[in-house]
């Protein structure tokens, strides 16, 4: 976890943290060649990043270590998901880094620009960032190998989820088995001999009712799914939870057979719960196969 143990500083002024600045907690896990770092608690703050892809999701807070990540996808504009945006942008300017690119739901784009303008006036420092609005169906090319697609989630305000795809070019079926010189000849003649194949490697939902998850099949197929599980107690009514754009432990149990993911990271647990209660309920209720692939940010 990325938080600093304050007791270490009681030993004397020569004691230093492991990192130059350690101002927000986060967990780290590595899977399939990707590092997922982040933390999420309902109504507190949510922030995630994948350094190998140079992208982050949501800006409820901004660990100093995350400042170097240049591309951020904000799922929605509730404060626990966007409050640190001006801080992040200001830090990059202070450290003489290039302005970042930040994607937000299109419906909130103009208000986010106004927020940045207000912070410019209050802070007396320019808020330099490329702000872009996103709607469902948009595609953002990260690199030649990776593209991000956008889908709608179901929350109390306009919200988006994101899927990162790995792109590969494969020989078309009709050319499989041809000699290499023949394939080269076709290619030189301008014939399209390959087709693009996309593999979902990361899906991120932000806050959503189950309908948002269900509407994006790639969420169930991605190697890594980062999502929310805000509520776990049986006494908490699911109809009310869904109305406010969140998911319950039972929603995962009902969909256990649909999750094909290698790793599922669930966070955004309600502050009503002590971590020990969350762990106990998850341990007792989740099917063994699903539980083995899940990690809980609690």
Kindly describe this structure.
By secondary structure, the chain is of the alpha/beta class. It has a single domain, classed as Metallo-beta-lactamase, Chain A (4-Layer Sandwich), CATH 3.60.15.10. Helices cover 26% and strands 28% of the residues. It contains ten helices and 14 strands. It has helices at residues 79-82, 85-94, 109-123, 180-188, 210-214, 217-221, 238-243, 249-254, 275-285, 288-292, and strands at 27-31, 34-41, 45-50, 55-59, 71-73, 101-105, 130-134, 139-141, 146-152, 160-171, 194-204, 224-228, 263-267, 294-296. The strands form two sheets. The protein has a seven-stranded mixed β-sheet. Strands 8-9-10-11-12-13-14 form a seven-stranded mixed β-sheet. It is globular, with a radius of gyration of 21 Å. One of its GO terms (molecular function) is hydrolase activity. It comes from Gemmata obscuriglobus. Keywords: Hydrolase. This is Metal-dependent hydrolase.
Instruction: Specify Rg, calculated over alpha carbons.
Output: 21 Å
- Main beta sheet strand tally, sense and closure: 7 strands, mixed
* Tally of individual helices: 10
What structural class do helix, strand and pairing data support? alpha/beta
- The CATH superfamily appears as Ribonuclease Z/Hydroxyacylglutathione hydrolase-like
Total number of strands: 14
User: What is the name of the CATH topology?
Assistant: Metallo-beta-lactamase, Chain A
Strand ordering within the main sheet: 1-2-3-4-5-6-7
Q: What is the mean predicted local confidence, pLDDT?
A: 91
Taken in chain order, the helices and strands follow as EEEEEHHEHEEEEHEHHEHHEHHE
Class in CATH?
Alpha Beta
Shape: globular
CATH architecture identity: 4-Layer Sandwich
Number of domains: 1
Distance between the termini: 11 Å
